[in-house]
Design goal:
Structural class: mainly beta
Strand order of the largest sheet: 1-2-7-8-13-10-11
CATH topology: Chondroitinase Ac, Chain A, domain 3
Number of strands: 13
Oligomer: single chain
Largest sheet: 7 strands, antiparallel
Distance between the termini: 33 Å
Shape: globular
CATH class: Mainly Beta
């Protein structure tokens, strides 16, 4: 995989790809419309952030490139790459428990906060990592 040179794009399957951790300066795309919703992507080597209609969706410190980002009622999934271990914050459904799977390894269960945030780390130094959060019924 590679960084997303256009900062944000829609893939053929409808998923989003965004982020460029190689940029030396903050770069952003605002009002990127997908299915009537407005996205804002901001990225560079220090941080990658995605907002939808003004609300946080994804943030990584340091910056990352995210491919095939999808959110459904049952799971959130994406591929992530970078040049360092990254702290990732997602804002999803509040007070909900999820099973966190990174590159086919079940890391464990995590619960979102009242505001819907979950935090976890991903080692992005080796290769692209597949991340899946499956909602626990």
């Amino acid at each position: 995989m590679a960084v997303v040179n256009e900062i944000i794009r829609v893939e053929n399957n409808g998923a989003l790809s965004f982020g460029n951790y190689e940029l030396p300066e903050k770069t952003k795309v605002i009002d990127f419309e997908v299915d009537g919703r407005l996205y804002k992507a901001k990225t560079f080597f220090e941080v990658t952030k995605l907002k939808r209609d003004g609300a946080l969706v994804y943030e990584s410190i340091p910056g990352t490139a995210v491919h095939n980002f999808k959110i459904t009622d049952k799971e959130t999934s994406f591929l992530v790459e970078g040049n360092a271990s990254s702290q990732i914050t997602l804002e999803i459904e509040s007070n909900t428990e999820y099973k966190l799977i990174i590159s086919d390894v079940i890391v464990g269960n995590i619960k979102s906060t009242v505001s819907g945030k979950v935090n976890f780390s991903v080692d992005c130094t080796k290769e692209t990592q597949a991340v899946v959060l499956k909602k626990i019924s």
